[in-house]
Amino acid sequence: MAGGIATSRATKADPAADRSRTTPTTEPRAVKWLLIGIAVLFLTVVVLLPLVTVFVEGLKRGWDVYISALTDPDAVSALKLTLLVAAIAVPLNAIFGIAASWLIAKFSFRGKNLLLSLIDLPFSVSPVIAGFMFLLLFGAQGYLGPWLDDRGLQVVFATPGIILATMFVTFPFVARELIPLMQAQGTLEEEAAATLGAKGFRIFWSVTLPNIKWGLLYGLVLCNARAMGEFGAVSVVSGHIRGETNTLPLHVEILYNEYQFSASFAAASLLMLLALLTLGAKSLVEWKTAQRNEDREG
Amino acid sequence: MKGSRSRSVLPGFGLTMGITVFYLGIIVLIPLSCIFLKTMELSWGGFWSTVTGPRVLASYKISLLTSLAAALVNVVFGMIVAWVLVRYRFPGKRLLDSLVDLPFALPTAVAGVALTAIYAPNGWIGKWLEPLGLKVAFTPLGITIALIFIGLPFIVRTVQPVLEDMDKEVEEAAVMLGAGRWRTIFRVVLPELTPALLTGFALAFARGIGEYGSVVFISGNMPMKTEIAPLLIMTRLESFELEQATAIAVVLLLMSFAMLLVINYIQWRAGKRTLAE
Q1: Are A132 and A51 in contact (CB under 8 A)?
Q2: Of the candidates B20, B29, B77, which has its C-beta nearest A42's C-beta?
Q3: CA dist B72 to A5, A44, A117, B69, B200, Å?
Q4: Residue B274's pLDDT is what?
Q5: How many CB atoms lie within 10 A of CB B159?
Q6: At what angle do helices A73-106 and A112-120 cross, to 10 degrees?
Q7: pLDDT (tens digit, 9 = 90+) per residue, B97-148?
Q8: Which of A184, A190, A285, B12 ranks highest by number of CB atoms within 10 Å?
Q9: From residue B78, how far is each of A10, B5, B136, B151 by CA, in Å?
Q10: Between chains, do A106 and B230 touch, taking CB under 8 Å as contact?
């Protein structure tokens, strides 16, 4: 909100800037446009160019090649596995995120800061190490490997391992979005509901959830983007079995390493669309939140 | 709020505590402790000779240096991007603002193949740089470019809110006291932004050290030259050298945790300063 105020103030100063070239708290016009130019150029080269490249390279050999790359059985099974993994990992992380943020925002207890740091921990673990951990736990030479083997269960180099690794890397996303939001909301509304006799789940459903729904949606969207796109961690535990344990990002890698660039970029373009949808959802959520805040203030 | 002894009237403490601790244990703590358990099984001599081997040391050096270079580039340009997005109005600003988040949302492997297609010797930009004798893909420079892509949002998104919350009055006061625009920026605005810049730098740096997907395609993966530490772990795993992989991974983990401590310290100090004011 303060951003809106700052920018509107800066624009009010603009006409003055025209007359005397510069006011004391703005830069000269030339500097302003130079800085904008640098920012635009930097983002164009670093971010926009890769975005465009994916689509251009994917469609380079024509629409037919693009479509056949996407309807290839291996691509379809990779897409299915990616969707399955996200469909399991995201809801589980959402349940955890809601529970953790309720716990942290609504109660005071010892060790809260430690808990917060532990929730953030997966962000600072390299994806390769994340996959490796599950290999050490469930692999043939791992701690639980022989036990699983006796029962004919396979975790790594199979779907469960991919799901676990994905859950680890996407672990903090929902909680991270909800904790500051719920902390800012405080406990007054929930306490009022409790005093009026509402039971636990009812309080959450009709008091808390309406307040946090956009933040929750954004957390889910981010979590989903990462779950569908995770590469390093999944790469370690997948075993790269085509048609079985290949996710879409791994499919991109395999095709690329086989010099099937068009097919690889066609698969990559699907993931790029997912990323663009994620950004769209983010803008929508920000817009909705800003609107809500305006309603409240007005 | 803290230290209130009265029991909360809100329900669900036991349930949410149970879910949180159970899930945290299963998904994060138990798997993570496996790495340290496995390290205990190594002899000190074996561990030391692994992590000080020339190829391993080279991989740490490459990971650290390229992450450092990328984070520094991002501090400068990320600061400019954040400044432009907060202080100026111009057409296409919202689009530019959303573009900043693309590296967060894009799967790293997609970034990797796209950047390679751009900077390979026959690529979009690579073919113009090649005649100039400048090789990007399959050199440390290529790794740095991938890490610039990955790290950019960390700087912009930590600096932006601080810049938005900053009172213009402080700058006006500096002007009233006779400071010029540049002096105001360097003596008033930048010191105020330093904690955010340092946090963003540390976040980008930490992410760079562990990054894998966006780097493996553009780096060329030549041992001693362009082999990053996470890739070396992967190579050891593929040849079933679990002990070596564990040793390399533990050192990398400790580096990341050290960065995490640094970030917490910066934020704690910044928090203390605000309170003091």
Answers
A1: no
A2: B77
A3: 30, 19, 26, 5, 10
A4: 67
A5: 24
A6: 170
A7: 999 999 999 999 999 999 999 999 988 899 899 888 888 989 999 999 999 9
A8: A190
A9: 20, 45, 22, 9
A10: no
pLDDT of residue A17: 43
What does DSSP assign to residue A151? Answer: T
Residues B119, B134 contacting (CB under 8 angstroms): no
DSSP B149-161: HHHHHHHHHHHHH
Most A CBs within 10 A among B1, B5, B10, B260, hence the mutation to make, goes to: B10
Which chain A residues are closer than 8 Å to B96 by Cβ? 39-40, 43
Contact with chain A for residue B95, Cβ under 8 A: no
Shortest distance between the Cα of A100 and any Cα of chain B, in A, equals: 5
What is the number of residues in chain A? 298
Distances (CA, A) of A277 to A216, B102, B146, B243: 16, 10, 23, 42
Its sign, for the CA torsion B247, B148, A26, A15, is negative
Residue B79 · residue B159 · CB < 8 Å: yes
Cβ contact A131:A237 at 8 Å: yes
B38 in contact with A at a CB cutoff of 8 Å?
Answer: yes
CB-based contact, B172 to chain A, within 8 Å: yes
Inspect the interface and report whether the beta carbons of A122 and B249 lie closer than 8 Å: no
pLDDT in tens, B234-250: 999 988 888 999 999 99
Both tokens assigned to A47: 């971010």
Q: How far apart are CA B40 and CA B134, in angstroms?
A: 46
The residue assigned the tokens 């296409």 is B92
- The Cβ of residue A257 has, within 10 Å, a number of other Cβ atoms equal to 11
CA–CA min distance B148, chain A (Å):
8
Least CB-CB distance to A50: which of B3, B96, B115? B115
Number of H helices, E strands in chain A: 17, 0
Q: What is the pLDDT of residue B169?
A: 81
Residues of chain A with pLDDT under 70: 1-24, 297-298
Of A10, A125, A191, the CB nearest to B210: A125
Quick one: average pLDDT of B76-82? Answer: 96
Check: CB of residue B116 under 8 Å from CB of residue B137: yes
- pLDDT for B277 equals 56
Does B117 sit within 8 Å of A282, measured CB to CB? Answer: no
Q: Given this model, what pLDDT does residue A268 score?
A: 95
| Prediction pTM value | 0.89
